[in-house]
């Protein structure tokens, strides 16, 4: 699709696509189970408590108000108070949901890797370390606990905002790479526990960085494939990431 596009324009397109991956990747709900009567692009979960359902509605309403106003007027022209007004909440409530205006506009990014998860990853030897590394990375980007927060219109506005503001693109890319760095550190620690799992003469840190880089590339390829297919559900992205990782390994071993 981009073969006839100038190189500089192709680069810009790829960067814009990447800038939304962190948000879209971990927050896409399964569209096949959505209610067609819900314009926000999500479905109601009857198992949710009233309190949890209200929390989700408020979270999504704040993001909708933030992205609408920033897209119309620009990031620096919109205040937190102006975001709160149409939602009917106070500044205090706003900061119970988001750490900053920027977070409400761009999304919360990938979740953090906990010490418990690192310990669990390093507690036993993995028969297929690349696959286990992929699972760890994908769990940060495609956190299933955030699927209910997805709103199709909000994500579309975020993409438009990133297209207008190059600084936001760089910020989003940096956040996305934060997940990669966290996983790299976990793999490096794993090698310290299981040095026999190493496959190169490089330092443990460099081998961990190389392995995570291959896995990261597989996820990027899966995201691009999913965009072309139109299927961005978490299950599809996970399955495609696994296939892309295996394809990458096959190519490197050919």
From TrEMBL:
SUPFAM superfamilies named among the record's database cross-references: Homeodomain-like (SSF46689)
Source species, domain of life: Bacteria
GO molecular function, one term: DNA-binding transcription factor activity
Gene3D superfamilies per the UniProt record, alphabetical: Tetracycline Repressor, domain 2 (1.10.357.10)
Domain HTH tetR-type: start-end pairs: 56-116
Keywords of this entry: DNA-binding, Transcription, Transcription regulation
Binding region for DNA: 79-98
Record-given protein name: Transcriptional regulator, TetR family
Organism expressing this protein natively: Corynebacterium gerontici
């Amino acid at each position: 699709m981009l073969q006839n596009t100038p190189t500089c324009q192709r680069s810009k397109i790829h960067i814009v696509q990447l800038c939304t991956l962190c948000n879209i990747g971990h927050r896409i709900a399964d569209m096949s189970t959505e209610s067609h009567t819900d314009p926000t692009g999500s479905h109601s979960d009857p198992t949710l408590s009233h309190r949890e359902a209200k929390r989700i509605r408020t979270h999504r309403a704040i993001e909708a108000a933030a992205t609408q106003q920033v897209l119309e007027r620009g990031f620096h022209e919109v205040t937190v108070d102006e975001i709160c007004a149409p939602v009917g909440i106070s500044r205090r409530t706003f900061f119970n949901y988001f750490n900053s205006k920027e977070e409400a506009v761009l999304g919360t990014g990938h979740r953090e890797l906990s010490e418990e998860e690192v310990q669990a990853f390093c507690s036993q030897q993995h028969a297929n370390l690349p696959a286990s590394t992929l699972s760890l990375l994908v769990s940060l980007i495609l956190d299933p606990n955030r699927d209910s927060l997805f709103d199709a219109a909000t994500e579309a506005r975020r993409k438009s905002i990133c297209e207008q503001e190059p600084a936001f693109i760089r910020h989003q890319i940096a956040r996305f790479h934060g997940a990669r760095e966290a996983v790299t550190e976990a793999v490096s620690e794993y090698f310290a526990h299981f040095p026999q799992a190493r496959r190169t003469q490089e330092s443990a840190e460099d081998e961990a960085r190389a392995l995570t880089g291959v896995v990261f590339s597989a996820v990027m390829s899966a995201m691009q494939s999913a965009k072309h297919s139109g299927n961005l559900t978490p299950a599809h992205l996970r399955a495609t990431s696994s296939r892309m990782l295996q394809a990458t390994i096959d190519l490197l071993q050919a």
